[in-house]
Design a protein that fits this description.
single chain; mainly alpha; 7 helices; globular; DinB family protein
């Protein structure tokens, strides 16, 4: 089951391998990481209905961190509002958020590969997958709004 989980996470974050997909567009880099890599800091900072692409991206990264720590039984204070406070980012901040998203994704994959997954760990991973897929869709809609305006 680990391989199947990693396949869907791979598609969610990087896009599908090859010319077909399980649920995203069958295009290279159609996942979260590829999608946000084409956005400038200025675009990531645009307020669209009270939120920004930067906030959605940071929130997705933060969610992965919380999931990883929960699986590892690491105590942490959770403040979900942190991400949604992000409004304006410069190029350096935007690059750091993108690198952080990729780093957290890679660490989650490492955790999946090297840990026995309990039923609670599997539930957390599936919840993260659903959460990340939701934000991929939200980001793509925000990007359509930017390109339309």
């Amino acid at each position: 089951m680990k391989n199947e989980i990693k396949t869907i996470l791979q598609e969610t974050f990087y896009g599908p391998e090859g010319n077909s997909s399980w649920y995203t567009e069958a295009k290279k880099e159609s996942g979260l990481i590829g999608t946000v890599s084409r956005i400038s800091a200025r675009e990531a900072s645009l307020d669209i209905d009270g939120t920004t692409i930067a906030a959605h991206t940071h929130h997705t990264m933060y969610h992965i961190t919380v999931c990883k720590n929960t699986i590892k039984n690491v105590d942490q204070e959770k403040d979900w509002s942190i991400s949604w406070k992000i409004k304006q980012v410069d190029e350096e901040e935007w690059n750091e958020i993108q690198k952080g998203l990729e780093r957290e994704y890679n660490e989650l994959i490492e955790l999946i590969e090297h840990r026995e997954l309990s039923s609670i760990a599997l539930t957390i991973i599936f919840a993260n997958l659903a959460h990340s897929a939701y934000h991929l869709g939200a980001l793509r809609q925000l990007i359509k709004r930017i390109n339309k305006d």
